[in-house]
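U., I forgot to send this yesterday:
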Amino acid sequence: MRENEKFLYNVSYLQERLDDAFSDARASYKVLEKHDSDLRYQLSLTYMNMSFQSYIEAKRIYKEAHLEHREFEGFFEAYKKYKFELKKVITEKDQNTSWLYSRYETLSKEKKELDLFIKGVFQNS
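Result:
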């Protein structure tokens, strides 16, 4: 595989894992809104576990393929903050999710910016 093809493959694979991580993180947030019973915390945690598996794989390919760039770092940092806030909500069975909402919105914003960046990478390659 040529160097440019390998680079594009790695970026594409990384984007797939980031999409999965974000999708499941979004579900971990949405399930808290849609369910009233304590089951919502278990469901949220299940989605977050799936999300974290994709996140770990994304970080692996990011490091191994030397794809370091600030747009990725912004997403990774927002993800860690979201995960921290979600853990607090679940651990404390917190009904006030305003901090979690804020972290979710930041994660969403970072994901949109990252998607634009990756789109630009493919257009320029």
